[in-house]
Write a structure and sequence with these properties.
Elements lengths: L19 H11 L4 H24 L1 H6 L3 E6 L5 E2 L2 H7 L5 E5 L16
Antiparallel strand pairs: 1-2, 1-3
Helix pairs in contact: 1-2
């Protein structure tokens, strides 16, 4: 577990509609992760959406400036690259997100990246 161990972590039992458990299991296997990790990441992504949307609405000039693709990152933000072949290799195991010029969360510079 990222923030502690499983003995001290909050636990929450959920009921899943028919077929959802097997879909989660298949998706977790495809991501080479546990079902628990997959569900936690899905919940975290869903909870982050309103924050991302608010940032886009409050700072449209930054969004408009960030139009040039400079690289790719894994959806967990742990790896990033300006090399398209590397990103394609990662995509077998990870969800890949684009990195645009002006992204405050990247270590890539616009000079490194820039697929045409």
């Amino acid at each position: 577990m990222r923030n502690g161990n499983s003995r001290t972590a909050d636990k929450f039992v959920i009921r899943l509609p028919d077929g959802v458990r097997s879909r989660v299991e298949d998706a977790a296997k495809a991501d080479h992760t546990s079902m628990n990790t997959f569900i936690v990441q899905a919940v975290e992504e869903k909870l982050a959406r309103p924050t991302r949307q608010a940032l886009l609405l409050e700072s449209p000039q930054q969004v408009n400036a960030a139009t040039r693709l400079i690289g790719w990152r894994t959806s967990d933000y742990l790896m990033e690259t300006a090399d398209q072949a590397t990103a394609q290799d990662w995509s077998v195991h990870y969800q890949i997100l684009p990195i645009f010029e002006g992204d405050a969360n990247t270590k890539l510079s616009s000079a490194e990246g820039a697929p045409a």
